[in-house]
Design brief:
This protein is mainly α. It is built from 15 helices and 4 strands. Strands 1-4 form a two-stranded antiparallel ribbon. The structure holds heme C (HEC) (2 copies).
């Protein structure tokens, strides 16, 4: 076997290994949704409205989202190179950090820390990367409008891999294995133009991450059973989760923001999580939008492979910076929560129970005056809080 073939094989093996390990570790964890209650199978009398709401949280897995701004998307060779890059510490300036240092495959691609190690700017929690291709805006603050631009920033950030565009381009050209990977992925040698080279590297990283998908959960089996009218099968969904689901759809009004198959409308909100950070405040979406609009790597720029025809660019063209964006953060997905504590943009809530208490005992004064009027203090009983937590756990496998 020649050297190039060996490199590619090793990259593929590592990729398969990481995905296999992630799947295994998720499987190995006890299913917390089942077995927490001894109640016999039964089905709550969900109304027609509730049933329609429940069905709207599926199906799962969703349609894969395409991204015309990235021509590497869906290309097997680019995915394989991206997979090996994701674990490659040579991408960082000091050669010690890879994407996987923080986005760890056996932790649903996050790190279990409140805020990421070494992050100086934002003091933010590392998000998991399962289903990451589903987002229209990326980052807690929506500072990116594509998966590839969100993959470029960590390479160049001070608090992360601390590269420069010329430094990283030079490293790819001078490291035979990386140069060979580039050729394999893009069908040509690394170009002389530094920025093109580094953007393409980020596009290969994105092509890989777009393959990361969360598995089906107990909720999905329940949802499909309801959709097909199979009451006997739907009744296998634990009663506590059914009661929690009813709170989620009803008095909790959770589904207003945590909508659709991903349990997020993909937009931004303020739910009263304090946004103080050492030495100031985290402006959230307000600064994210400023960064997005100033970035040469947004969809309106020259690195968008679809050019002016990109439908996704319309969204970026029409965003408007408004004061209400201050302190807003992206509505997170609720899938795989059982594996992604701690929660919120600053990792300030350690458990699912703590999140439920946050909403139950909501400090309404903390919400912006012009903020979310959807939310109000729920004052849940202990049983209701436990039911809501059981429902949230049933979204994980
Ligand atoms: C030091 C830890 C760390 C490293 C290393 C790191 N990340 Fe991240 N990553 C984070 C944090 C923290 C965020 C949240 C940033 C924010 O929203 O301000 C994030 C956000 C992201 C997002 C946005 C996810 C979403 O749901 O919107 C993507 C994509 C991503 N990282 C990919 C990468 C890639 C690719 C690499 C390697 C090139 C990488 N990250 C390296 C900590 C890290
Ligand atoms: C007004 C929109 C909105 C409503 C309504 C809402 N949420 Fe959220 N939710 C958010 C936002 C925004 C965040 C992230 C806030 C932050 O990080 O500062 C969040 C965070 C969360 C998280 C943490 C996820 C993570 O990965 O960190 C959970 C769990 C959650 N919400 C559950 C619920 C439940 C349960 C309800 C109903 C009781 C609810 N949400 C109602 C917008 C909303």
């Amino acid at each position: 076997m020649n050297r190039l073939a060996q490199v590619v094989r090793a990259a593929r093996a590592r990729w398969a290994l990481s995905i296999g390990a992630a799947a295994l570790s998720l499987l190995a964890l006890p299913s917390m949704a089942a077995g927490t209650t001894a109640e016999p199978p039964a089905l709550l009398d969900f109304s027609a409205t509730e049933r329609a709401q429940i069905v709207a949280h599926g199906p799962w897995p969703p349609q894969p989202r395409t991204d015309a701004s990235n021509r590497a998307m869906g290309q097997a060779a680019a995915q394989a190179w991206g997979a090996s890059l994701f674990f490659d510490t040579r991408l960082s300036a000091n050669q010690q950090l890879s994407c996987a240092s923080c986005h760890q495959p056996n932790r649903a691609f996050q790190d279990g820390l409140a805020t990421a190690v070494g992050r100086t700017a934002g003091q933010r929690n590392t998000p998991g990367l399962l289903d990451v291709a589903q987002w229209r805006w990326l980052g807690w603050d929506g500072a990116h409008d594509s998966l590839w631009s969100a993959s470029l920033t960590p390479l160049l950030s001070d608090g992360e891999m601390q590269q420069t565009v010329p430094g990283l381009a030079e490293r790819v050209r001078r490291t035979p294995e990386l140069a060979a990977g580039y050729r394999e992925a893009f069908g040509q040698s690394p170009p002389a133009d530094n920025t093109t080279l580094v953007v393409n590297l980020a596009k290969a990283l994105a092509a890989y991450q777009a393959t990361l998908a969360s598995p089906r959960s107990a909720f999905d089996a329940f949802r499909d059973a309801l959709a097909s009218g199979n009451s006997a099968r739907a009744a296998r969904y634990p009663m506590a989760a059914q009661r929690g689901l009813r709170i989620f759809l009803g008095e909790g009004r959770c589904t207003v923001c945590h909508a659709g198959p991903l349990f997020s409308n993909g937009e931004f909100g303020d739910i009263g999580v304090p946004f103080f950070v050492p030495g100031g405040v985290d402006p959230g979406r307000y600064r994210g939008l400023q960064q997005l609009l100033a970035s040469p790597y947004n969809r309106l720029g020259t690195f968008n492979d679809a050019g002016a025809t990109d439908a996704g660019a319309v969204g970026t063209r029409h965003v408007i910076l408004e004061p209400r964006h201050f302190g807003e953060f992206r509505v997170p997905s609720l899938r795989q929560l059982a594996h992604t504590a701690p929660f919120m943009h600053n990792g300030s809530l350690p458990s699912i129970e703590a999140v439920v208490q946050h909403y139950s005992q909501l400090n309404e004064d903390r919400l912006h005056a012009d903020g979310e009027r959807i939310l109000r203090r729920l004052n849940l009983s202990d049983e209701q809080a436990a039911d809501l937590a059981a429902f949230l756990r049933s979204l994980s496998e």
